[in-house]
Amino acid sequence: MPRPSSPHDGYTRMTTAYVHRLPSLPDQCISFDKQIDYFSSVSASLAQSLGQAQAAAHLSKSLFAITIGSNDIIHYARSSSSSAATAGGAGDPSQQFVDALIQVLTGQLQRLYDLGARKLVFLGTGPVGCCPSLRELSASKDCSAVANGVSVRYNAAAASLLGGMVARHPDMHYALFDSSAALLRFIDQPAAYGFAEARAACCGLGDMNAKIGCTPLSFYCANRTSHVFWDFYHPTETTARKLTSTAFDGAAPLIFPINIRQLSAL
């Protein structure tokens, strides 16, 4: 399974002018476009060593895991331009932002297909508005409606994109994990899923452990398995295990049209 694109990678170096107005992400992050460039080189090497037919057969059986967009949405929600309406109408800047992300993603996924990818695992963005970092910005410590609204629309648009690709390419298959809906279960009803804390981070400093990230000098919670979030952005290992279990063996509407185990067996 090729290395998945990370939620830290983001849509950096986009050509879309709208997205270029957002704060740039750290230089050490490798953009999805650059990762596809690297994969292009690997694909060419496989064809040279195995032969075109065998290389294509090998890639067609591989799983390509993609999770991307969370950092873009977080940066958007933090930007001053995100204070506009969140309903998703045609004149809504947040909808224009989602459209810009999907426009770029469309070309990126098509490139992967053209290079031989046939099985895609797409992990949608989670309810990033509920991460401690964005909660901490609210006086009431509520989730960011802007960020969560964008995440829901982005995931829906990604589902539509993948469905359209399958319609055009019958040999392509995918599993899409609705990370937003899956993680919101733990946040809205933590006790029902074995958690005691769904708002504050386990590791960090400041209000909700969300002012400063997790460092050797940070405060650590006594029981990390009781927390949904490890630091101001990321889930704990316990949360990740529960989400992974659903993605591998769950069913619609959280993972669809098939789960990862079923996709792997094709």
From TrEMBL:
Keyword entries, A-Z: Hydrolase, Lipid degradation, Lipid metabolism
Transmembrane segments: none
Tree of life domain: Eukaryota
InterPro entries recorded: GDSL, GDSL_Est/Lipase, SGNH_hydro_sf
One Pfam family this sequence matches: Lipase_GDSL
A GO biological-process term: lipid catabolic process
GO molecular function, one term: hydrolase activity, acting on ester bonds
Family as reported in the entry's similarity comment: Belongs to the 'GDSL' lipolytic enzyme family.
UniProt protein name: GDSL esterase/lipase
